[in-house]
Amino acid sequence: MNQASEWVHNFKRDIPSHINKIENYVESLKSITADEIVDDFVNFRVTPATVTISITAVTTLLFIGSYLSSASSPKTKSKKNKKPKKKVTKAQRANLDIQGTLDYVESEYVPKIDDYIENYKTLSKDDREYKFKYFEEMLLKQLMKLDGIDVIGNDILRDNRKKVIKFIQDHQKRLDKIKKEN
Predict the structure, then answer these.
(1) Which CATH class is domain 90-181?
(2) Where are the domains of the chain?
(3) Tell me: the pLDDT tens digits for 117-145?
(4) Three state DSSP letters for the chain
(5) What residues form the membrane-spanning segments (predicted)?
C-alpha cells in the first residue's frame, strides 16, 4: 500500500473518533455562559470558547479587510497605472500647434497640390478653377490658424512660425505660377 492510500485508510478508520471529538467540543461550548467567556477573555485563558471566538473574529476581520481593499483597489490601481499628465506650458502648446499645422499641410495638401500641378493640363477648366480655389482657401485657413498662435516674447517660436508660413506661401506661389503659365 502506498503512502497516500495508507493515509486515506487511516483517516476513514479514525472518522468516528474525529466526529466524537467534534461533538465533545460543541457540547463544551454549549455549556459555557457569556459571563464565563468574558471572564476567560479578560484573564487571557485559552478555552474552546475563546479560541473559537478569536478565530471567527480574526477570519471575519480578514475577510472584511480583503473585501474592502479589493473594492477600492481598482480605483487605486487605475491611478497607479495612469501616468500623471504633464502640464504643457504656453510655449510648448504653441510649438505643438505650429508643428501640427506644418504636419497637416505636408500630409493633407502638399501631395494633392503636387498631383494638381502635375495633371493640370489634363483637367477640365472647371475642375482646374475649383481645385485652385479649394487649395487657396485651405492654405489661407492654415495661415490664419498660424496667425492665431501666441508667440509673443519667444523668438524661437516666432521663427518657427515664420518658416511654416513661408512654406505655405511657397505652395500658394506654386499654384499661382501654374495658373498664370496656362
Answers:
(1) mainly alpha
(2) 14-81, 90-181
(3) 999 999 999 999 999 999 999 999 999 99
(4) CCHHHHHHHHHHHHHHHHHHHHHHHHHHHHCCCHHHHHHHHHCCCCCHHHHHHHHHHHHHHHHHHHHHHHHHHHHHHHHHHCCCCCCCCHHHHHHHHHHHHHHHHHHHHHHHHHHHHHCHHHCCHHHHHHHHHHHHHHHHHHHHHHHCCCCCCCHHHHHHHHHHHHHHHHHHHHHHHHHHHC
(5) 49-70
Dihedral of the alpha carbons of 121, 122, 128, 130, in degrees to the nearest 10: -170
pLDDT tens, 43-91?
888 887 788 888 888 888 888 888 888 776 555 555 556 777 788 888 9
For residue 19, the one-letter residue type is I
Cα(164)–Cα(149) distance, rounded to whole angstroms? 12
Residue 17 and residue 113: Cα distance in Å, rounded? 95
Helix 90-104 × helix 155-181 angle, to 10°: 20
